[in-house]
Amino acid sequence: MDAPLFGLPKESDWVMYAPYTDKTLIRNFLAYTMLNNLGHWAAHCRYVEVVLNGQYVGVYLFMEKIKRGSGRVNIAKLKSSDKSGDNVTGGYIFSIDKNADAWFSSYSPPNSAGSSIHFSYVYPKAEDITTQQAAYIKNDVDDFENALAGANFQDTAKGFRKYADENSFIDYFIVNEISRNVDGYRLSSYFHKDRNSVNSKIFAGPVWDYDIAFRNANYCNGSDSTGWAYQFNSVCSDTYEIPFWWNRFMQDSLFKAHLYCRWIEVRSTVLSNENINHWIDSIYNVVGEAEKRHFAKWPVLGQYIWPNAAPIPSTYAEEISTLKSWLAARLSWLDRNIEKTGPCATMPSLCNGSFEIKVWPNPINNPQNLNIISAKDQTIQMVIVSIAGQRVLQSSLAILAGSNTVQISTARWAKGVYIISALSNDGTKKTVTIEK
Q: How far is C-alpha 366 from the chain's CA centre?
């Protein structure tokens, strides 16, 4: 029976999570809040104290479950009769996890110890998915992997971007790397795809299961504030390894450029040190009284509970301060080590007006991305003309504060030089020359 609980949208399926090994009580909440603030759905959480049959059992996290639905993963509903045409193309949720009930990737993980990548059905479930639907989603993921592994993987029209939403994979990468999730990319890794008539791309996420992230793993460098989580296979030999996808993405110059632009955007806004510490402090205030009852019931503070990293804090306040200190070091390392490439690497300060336009690459491709970095939310009037004065594009752009990617079609443009002129409503004018 669908019901709204604790102010969350009505549903029938929920998770009551016991943060036993995570003595901060916050790690799952933190990862899900990060992805929500990056503009994607992730499970919303409420802190509760549970009394079962008159017995106090501690602080739990009441969470939404990953599920198809208008208030959850908002993709099309599949019926058993949807076997062909647009209907069979979505929606789907699948995962990479231990208990594979779907199919295996054709590609071995990098630095593999002979393992395979296991895919599982999430929606529809294995017992509900039809033969045609199972074949469709497998073939679609196969096409994505083949394009990513192929020689033209960086081609914006024929490469992996034909099948995958790059921005969602970038944001998924950011959450996994900030948390240095030792299970990241290889376990509890979810992906979804809508019906083609809505959106034909595979999206990374939602994120799930971060209780042994954020320093809370004493193996495979999981507690280090340095190093890349996506390079797990180079650090550890395990039955469950990371697919080749992420190494391949980091060989793509445009992916790295977009990653850096996104990084500098979110680090100055939703994922700033101040904002992240505010979330942590807010939860500390919420559970400040309840945690005493919780740890009286479960006296594990200062004790090793797999896979806690040493040194193990002896109080709840020390757990929180250790998490904040580790995050500060982790964010600092990422600030220094995310490759500074693409238009955002050379962008001047915004002291000369309220926005800047960068074109990357130049000479341009089709379709072509323009990167507009703005000091505020605003409307920009943009006109593009050829060197001979012929207008090829006129557009009014609603630009958000931070980094914005605008895609334009240049297929019908003749070879030559073009001039982009842009004017904001505050009077800032910018002119950029490009070549095809």
A: 26
In DSSP terms, 42 is beta-bridged to: none
Q: Are 266 and 38 contacting, i.e. CB atoms less than 8 angstroms apart?
A: yes
Q: Distance between CA 297 and CA 19 in Å, rounded?
A: 13
At 391 the three-state DSSP class reads strand
Question: How far is residue 173 CA from its own chain's centroid?
Answer: 5
Q: How far is CA 362 from CA 107, 138, 151, 305, 343, in A?
A: 34, 37, 22, 54, 11
- Helices 253-267 and 166-179 cross at an angle (nearest 10°) of 60
pLDDT tens-digit profile of 278-333? 999 999 999 999 999 999 999 999 999 999 999 999 999 999 999 999 999 999 99
Q: At residue 358, does pLDDT exceed 90? A: no
pLDDT higher at 225 or 403: 225
Q: What is the pTM of this model?
A: 0.82
Rg, C-alpha atoms of the chain: 24
Cβ 323 vs Cβ 243: under 8 Å = no
The pLDDT of residue 351 is above 50 = no
Whole-number pLDDT of residue 323: 98
- Is the distance from CB of 59 to CB of 25 less than 8 angstroms? yes
Where along the chain do its domains lie? 1-344, 347-435
Peptide bond into 348 cis (omega under 30): no
Please list the helix, strand and coil fractions of the chain in percent, rounded to the nearest 5, in that order: 30, 25, 50
Q: What is the pLDDT of residues 134-191, one digit of tens each?
A: 999 999 999 999 999 999 999 999 999 999 999 999 999 999 999 999 999 999 999 9
- What would the DSSP string read from start to end of 215-280? T---STTTT-SSS-GGGHHHH---SS---THHHHHTT-HHHHHHHHHHHHHHHTTTTSHHHHHHHH
Helices (H), 45-190: 131-149, 166-179
Cβ(359)–Cβ(368) below 8 Å: yes
What's the CA gap between 433 and 215, in Å, rounded?
47
276 within 8 A of 10, measured Cβ to Cβ: no
Question: How far is the C-alpha of 233 from the C-alpha of 114, rounded, in Å?
Answer: 11
347-435 has CATH 3.40.640.10 classification: no
Whether residue 407 has pLDDT greater than 90: no
Model confidence pLDDT, tens digit, residues 176-235:
999 999 999 999 999 999 999 999 999 999 999 999 999 999 999 999 999 999 999 999
